[in-house]
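Q: Predict the assembly, please.
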Amino acid sequence: MKLIPDISSEKLIHLYKQMWLIRLFDERLEQFFAKGLMHGTTHLSVGQEATAVGACAVLKDADKITSTHRGHGHSIAKGAYVDKMMAEMFGKITGYCKGKGGSMHIADLDRGNLGANGIVGGGIPLAVGAALTAHMKKLNYVTVCFFGDGATNEGSFHEAVNLASIWDLPVVFFCENNQYGMSSSISEMVNIEHIAERALAYGIPSVIVDGNDLIEVMNETYKATERARKGGGPTLIEAKTYRWKGHSKSDGLKYRTHEEEREWRKKDPIIRFEKVLVEEGILTKKKAKALVLEANQEIDAAVEFAKNSPMPPKDELLTDVYA
Ligand SMILES: Cc1ncc(C[n+]2csc(CCOP(=O)(O)OP(=O)(O)O)c2C)c(N)n1
Ligand SMILES: [Mg+2]
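A: Predicted assembly structure:
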């Protein structure tokens, strides 16, 4: 294991459990939606756990992130409470947005999470704004901006990356290239091989990482955040990964093959990291099993908390809204 940031064995074990927490949280949501117990829509990041956990692992509490419509993993990785997240998904008053926002509005300012975003590419200018604030007020935090491959075809991506570049802002652009937008393969939507190539147009460095390799994600995000902290400006990281599930709750997955899905499932980021930890003598198979059980129990407790929480009262209807 070639790990560049100084991360203790205890923290590595914590990261392993965090990846399970993300997977089990999203799989539980899938069941609730299928049973009609949860409403609206949701986007699951099963299979992509290493990008959220790896990138957030090298961040300090004061550092910020912006997230996407596929954001539960980012929130959990930045330290959100799963019970408040689950309550939000059930529309309960105890949720992060008092039950008014749902999946795509979960934000946790106390932990530096500036929020999920239903607008594809919407978080990118927000991240640059947060970085500009740090720069102007001489605050020593960096912002990691998560977005998908599809989002790099939005104008907001190009405008925001350019500004961050000319102003040398402390931001890391983290593209989770899961190979697809809603149903379109990124290979048909851009005329370049790698999203990372787009950095060249804005004069910033870029790197391609195996997004299912937690160690590689941590190493490259660490280098990019250190560079940003020292005034070196932004970096574009392209993490190649794959979403195992459909785009959102109703998706027949007609646009890709079972064979492709099988190939990616073999690269399961959690199992790969577990193997590394076992080989390094940091984790035993038995302890790994116990951690999965613990994560599952945390999700059970979150569901209990959410189900037992009250719905928002009528007089909450017009609070915290702008129009
Ligand atoms: C501005 C905007 N355009 C279109 C949509 C509809 N939409 C929601 S998610 C999505 C695909 C985004 O793909 P990507 O950025 O790769 O993220 P992924 O879903 O793969 O995580 C689209 C087109 C939207 N929410 N916002
Ligand atoms: Mg995508």
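The radius of gyration is 19 Å. The first strand starts at residue 64 and ends at 66.
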